[in-house]
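Notebook entry, structure prediction.
Reason for the run: the old model in the group folder had no record of what sequence produced it. Starting over properly, with the input documented here first.
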Amino acid sequence: MTNDLPPRRPFSVRARLLSVTGVVVVASLLIWHAQVIDLLSFDSDADKQPVVAGGPNGSPPPAPPTRKPVKKTAAPGETPTLPSKPKKTPSPEATKSTAEKKTQYSEESIEGLSPTLRSRLRKAMADAKAQGVPMRINSGRRSAAKQQRLFDEAIKKYGSYKKAIRWVLPPDKSEHVHGRAVDIAPQSAMTWLERAGWKYGICRVYANEPWHFEALRAPGRKCPPLQTSSAAELG
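New structure, fully documented this time:
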């Protein structure tokens, strides 16, 4: 017997190298074959999936953030500016002053007369009523427009300016327009006031108009003589 080991067979080393090499070659062939199939397959499941634009994994893109309006705040010590409201155009009736509306009275109202004639006539009417004589105002304060209309009608009726002014005066000459003259009714009241009017400072003015009275004298003084007509005032 000897101590020498028997020599290894060179064939077994080669066989192992060839086995490893074969495995690598086969694996490479399988991977290449799969890639070729993917390239040539046009009806694969991946091609049938819809393309979705957006975020990861085809998720819809995020919506843009909504911007809220910024409310402007006033600085410290500053008065905030409020939105202006549309202005309304006032009607002609609304533009009249309160004082003007209060001065519009009925022609038969004692309130439309001047303060002097109103206070005196109120006392006379109260005393006449106490004596059983009814008294009312037939025509007191008139507007300039109505006085002009009455004057125009008088010219047509009597035929001339000279004859018309015996009964009706133009607006700029009439005491009715200023509330300083009053036409009394009925006839019994005219008679009573002509006789007792001087006590109240109220006098009949024209001979041809027994209904027309004015505050011509201070209360208690005798009334002046009657004028023929209103034409006498114009000369």
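Summary: The domain at 103-234 is CATH 3.30.1380.10 (Muramoyl-pentapeptide Carboxypeptidase; domain 2).
The old model has been moved to the deprecated folder.
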